[in-house]
């Protein structure tokens, strides 16, 4: 494989003048990263909307990297969704995420990007991986069928980074966050993840004085949740490491059942009706708690508890409703 005549990147820390491209800056994760970077004095940010830069278009991606020469890339762009969306549109989920990752990693390599941080998800791990899930569990057994397409695309992206780093010495690495929530989340009635779906559903039920809300599945699966601002802090922390891990989990280290989560959301929004379950709907992976000892060993730890995070997220949800900026796509 040929590459431009750029020298191999030196392993040095970012500075305030570094040209940083945040791919997917309008999504929940990208927006949180941008907020934190600006707060920390990083002003030289390269931000492009989907209409300005189609990451599935190889020619556009190559042109962007050639003309703008980013030094650091945070790749938070993805086609994402909950169980319903993943199960309904697997072709789009695998194709779009594969193509975006391939285009970006190759262009970054060809044009001398110094640091490339690829964002995936802990859904890359096997359905029945030993708990809590260590990074070494990757590719040891079968994936969860309801999000297999997305998981395979994300595994390919992190492996691209790993193999380019191994073969060419570039500092391309990956972080796998657990289930995320926070301001700017997607509140689509069918395609959103479980926590934003709960916030919207219980809010609307509370407003309508409904007697009950029905949640998918049995309510027994255990899930881990991380506030997106904690993830943004982890991303900046990893970018400042001279020798970051190839792959690292980012999570809260705590888990809650789906039924308990529903109760916590109901309490937060003020819903006082019944919470019912629908066992005819899929539960997904029975348990998914990630081991975060690797990133803890580098000096990062989560700071925002679930109760505090739910309260601030619901406040952001209401503000987004009021100013007509709520995402529901």
Automatic annotation (TrEMBL):
Pathway(s) where this gene product acts: Nucleotide-sugar biosynthesis; GDP-L-fucose biosynthesis via de novo pathway; GDP-L-fucose from GDP-alpha-D-mannose: step 2/2
The protein's enzyme class: oxidoreductase
Domain of life of the organism encoding this protein: Bacteria
Reaction catalysed by this enzyme: GDP-beta-L-fucose + NADP(+) = GDP-4-dehydro-alpha-D-rhamnose + NADPH + H(+)
Site (Important for catalytic activity): 121, 123
GO biological process: 'de novo' GDP-L-fucose biosynthetic process
EC number annotated for this UniProt entry: 1.1.1.271
GO terms assigned for molecular function: GDP-L-fucose synthase activity; isomerase activity; NADP+ binding
UniProt domain NAD-dependent epimerase/dehydratase: residue ranges: 20-251
Pfam family, one: Epimerase
Coiled coil region boundaries: none
InterPro entries: Epimerase_deHydtase, GDP_fucose/colitose_synth, NAD(P)-bd_dom_sf
Alphabetical list of Gene3D superfamilies matching this protein: NAD(P)-binding Rossmann-like Domain, UDP-galactose 4-epimerase, domain 1
Keywords: Isomerase, Multifunctional enzyme, NADP, Oxidoreductase
Record-listed substrate binding positions: 201, 216, 223, 283
Binding site for NADP(+): 24-30, 119-122, 154, 177-180, 193
Signal peptide bounds: none
Active site: 150 (proton donor/acceptor)
Entry's family note: Belongs to the NAD(P)-dependent epimerase/dehydratase family. Fucose synthase subfamily.
Role noted for this protein: Catalyzes the two-step NADP-dependent conversion of GDP-4-dehydro-6-deoxy-D-mannose to GDP-fucose, involving an epimerase and a reductase reaction.
Listed name of the protein: GDP-L-fucose synthase
The species this protein was found in: Fuerstiella marisgermanici
Gene: fcl
